[in-house]
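Notebook B, p. 112. Complex prediction, attempt 2.
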Amino acid sequence: MLRRFVGILSITGLLGLALAVVVAGHFSTIFNRLEVTDRFLEVAATSLLLFLLILILRYLSLLCFSFIEKYRTMKSPVETTEYPPVTLIMPAYNEGLVIESSIRSALSLNYPDYEVIVVDDGSSDDTYEKACAIAAQVGRRKLRVFTQPNGGKATALNTGIRYARGELVLCTDSDSRLDRDAVRHMVKHFADPGMTAVAGNVRVVNRRNTLTRLQALEYIEGLNLVRAAQSLFGVMTVIPGPIGMFRKSAVEALGGYLFDTFAEDCDLTLRLMVAGGRIRYEPDAIAFTEAPENTKALFRQRYRWGRGILQALIKQRQELWRPWNVRLWLTFASLAFESIVLPTINLFGVVLLIITTLGGISSLGLLWWAGLTALDASVALYCVAREREQLPLIVQSVAYRLVYVLFVDTIRFFAWVDEMFDVRMSWMRVARHGRI
Amino acid sequence: MDLELYSIMAATVLITSVGTVIFAILAYVMFRIQEGRAARASADGGARPVLHASKSQFFKPYDVSKTA
């Protein structure tokens, strides 16, 4: 079984990369045959080829590292017979539509010793009342509900951590659902006393339109694959908000979640890494989350993420000069590459596409896009096999590179510009539809 | 014929890419207009949570008004 699974992963990964390399080679051959005389055009076409090679190298690294990590965990799985008490913390702000089902789902996990803490962050709807009604039914030993004046998600999470009885705390969102065995899968990593936190696997649940299906593909290809690769080195750039388990003492020692960035999860992750913590990714600990269903909501979410990640990165810039901390450098390099370099390449690629087309070598642009799409499709195939996801997601690869990635990267660009000029912004809560 | 198909495909890729970036720019313009309106409404007394840089309140007592 193991051999077969590993075989499928290897074949899909290698197939895709071979395809991409062939396209890159073809690209190079056409470029040489064109005999471009214009120096400017030559630089533009060479840059396109260089970008393609960088992206091939990125995917190659991600595939190799995630493959080794998968093989390592399958070959020598982490097991534990101890199940320490865990506290599941669920912050909620105006989640009246989904809070009942969220709590009931959280109460039905397959784990012997855990409690749920719901922190109502000053909701103006009936979130608190609904949570209290369930608490009255199930009792305070299983569910406790707190309410506080509105102070943001970070303060709500801190309240939960403060009142947690367990040494392990699982922070989640009230619009996400955990897989029944998620806690069991995450806890086993903490048998290692040096383990500080474990990041879970986030999947999009509301695959109702093309936009949410594209996000589903992005979550497995753009986020989970990166986390799996990072996990091999015990580093992590973002422990996702919907599912992250922490050692309470480690979070307390750092002063809990801070609210001086828009990405409190990324900020805490970086601070844990700076403090010397070790973080792993657990692909079997799954949280299902509701993704934005329209471009307006997606824009607001990604704009906030873009500014938040940059804020968290800038906050820790002095740590870059700490000598010989390879894991920390890896963390910063990975975050900077995925959040800044890669989007810049993608956007600059469009500019080069225009230049080459106007210069009469449109075939290069087409090949560039074809090469990237072939890469995306093959990596998507690998990720689908790895995560036992839906096969039709691969079809989204065509629109993924051409439309989705460009849209998201343009938003990121504006988020950085606004952050650099310190433009004020509000929290911009994403509207919930209660799909879970 | 082949060349024509090639050109059409290349043009499609280019137009879609540029169109997407233009759409994102328009979305940003709309967003800034809405944020500007929201900021003005906030100045007039409308309440919207705005992020302010501040230190952790982790060890400070929380105003937990009610618990269940």
